[in-house]
Amino acid sequence: MADACGLSVRAVTEKASRPVTGARRPWLIVNPRSGGGKASRFRIAERARALGVQVFLLDHSLPQDVATVARRAVDDGADLLGVAGGDGTQALVAAVAAQSDLPFLVVPAGTRNHFAADLGLDRADPSAALEALTDGVELRVDLGYAGERAFVNNVSFGAYAALVQDPAYREDKIGTMVRILPEFLARHAGPELAVRAGLLTVDRPDAVLVSNNPYQVDDPAGLGRRAQLDSGLLGVLAARAETPAETAARLRSGRMHGLTRLATPDDVFVHADAPVVPVGLDGEAVTLRTPVRCRISPRALRVWVPRHRPGAVPTGRQPPGRAVAQRAASLVERLSWPSRRLPDG
What we know:
CATH class of the largest domain: Mainly Beta
Number of strands: 17
């Protein structure tokens, strides 16, 4: 409610944090290609080394498994694991940190970095995240799993997963969603899905989004912010098709007909009439065997963040969920008039 009124909120409150002491052997894995080379522009590797951090630069010309690199770091005595990269890379190393009960450092050097935003980190200056090593606090946050794969944000199925498969997705998340929406409304071709969570069953949804903690209630597309990262709940959005005009009206009001919304501590099972399904996992296109079991591991991840960080919606500005919904609604309305050409860009 505070966020809906434009008040400052944090995804994880300061009451849930505790001061940290410096790590003796911190490791940072840097993806130099993530975010169009953001790590290089902000000299993340150099600044980390100046703080005594062991830096591993990913070389995309070689076959490298990020999780394997992280496990080797643990074997070599690392007492903190960090990643400078996008959400997909963050999730791979976060799983290793959680399994080893080591602190985890998020340096938002990707394109979107939704996890970093919900942690309150400064995405405009990713190097600021390194302050966690000298003046930081530890937050205990939840970690989601789809099968054996961890996710820090969400895992998507059906039309949502098709969106992630689209090469244009990384450049324009909202625009890409709207461009493929007619296909979504016409019931995206793909395996028939069913969702089971406790006593709830949703048959034949066109799109499913399972998130590590629920998104805000005014965010029907799951493109905005999460009010918490430590609720111990999975968020579930399961959508069925409707007409473009109806979708535009529902998005404006923050509601969608045919949308099932759930926050649950129970495991969520996504069934399909196929042995494997395409999935979007923290923005990365993967395939998983069905049924896919999604679960939440409460407070499994020890995240170190700077004591002082932005972390809030500035007072007087629209909350991200509402702003995203209104922009999407405007674009969807244009799509309801086939004879009208969308403006360039």
